[in-house]
């Protein structure tokens, strides 16, 4: 049966069939073999997609789409440029800073890549930066989106592992900031080594003007995070309020929101949400099959047989997830690994927030690696840089993210301390 559940899934995926359809096919074949009524399949599909916290996903996606549409990315770039644009390689540092700020609004790497990539890559090329470097920096910095809260992958992981969304958000805060700072350091190193240009210092009053221009958009971050962490509203309510606020700011304050485009924006969000929810529903069925055949327990037995040390186990799992991420995007990979690895968290007494934040970080590397790295192909379409040339530029950027992952593994307090400070030590 193991050959059907795992080998069959991999074989179907190798043919190019979408993973959600592969999980559905394996689940149906298994139920027919085991003479289980297909009504049970429908039940587990429905249960998998009925978690209340998942309502936040389309709302955060809509917030990101609205912010892109009203030109928030341009305003953020202008503000960051006024602060650090005069440093050598300042525009590269501006790129990272803008991604960190935008991360507090969208929670999704694709939105950052699309929104900031179309702004930053042409601007950096115009200022004398190599286009492959600009593209590699932009697509890597966009990964900060799902790390710094809010984060769509963190929401999905919280729902599947029955964890506090607020704690998961806070768990990604310090690693996300650390990732951004290390990328800034790498950008400065490249700027000095390749003699990238220094821009003139911003004119007097430019910082104040740019801050005033961007402040209403920046308030979105405080609405989302402040409301969640103070307990004023839940993550789902925060997502809804942020979406409404973004709409009102675009319509009445920036006055750049074209209402004729609103149906198209809503349709795009609905399609993206539909894809995510379809995958989640199919994973509900596949996870039922895995659990019934005790596959998670068998995996745990094998893993625990290699080592009992938590750090060694987590490193081994991350290496496996690096490989898995090359073939699956973050959401499908999470839906596969969370049910399988959940028993390990209890058996090896991992801190659940630390464990799952590290897992999300490890899977995010897959958004930058072929053959399935969606952000990789998105930035190539935006910038025009060939995939092969871009991949040759990326290894130092990979190492930055891998360094953050290993720092999080060996220093778990950077993940757990913010949540313990806000919510108390009890998980």
Please give a handful of descriptors for the protein shown.
22 helices, 427 residues, mainly alpha, 0% strand, 77% helix
Report on the architecture of this protein.
The protein is mainly α and 427 residues long. Helices cover 77% and strands 0% of the residues. It is built from 22 helices and no strands. The radius of gyration is 22 Å and the shape is globular. The model has no long low-confidence stretch (mean pLDDT 86).
Summarize this, please?
By secondary structure, the protein is an all-alpha fold. It contains 22 helices and no strands. Helix 9 crosses helix 17 (330-347) and helix 16 (310-325) runs parallel beside helix 18.
Q: What is the strand and helix layout of this fold?
A:
Elements: H1 2-14, H2 19-33, H3 38-48, H4 56-69, H5 72-84, H6 90-106, H7 109-126, H8 131-141, H9 152-161, H10 165-171, H11 173-193, H12 206-229, H13 235-253, H14 262-292, H15 295-306, H16 310-325, H17 330-347, H18 352-364, H19 374-383, H20 387-393, H21 395-410, H22 413-423
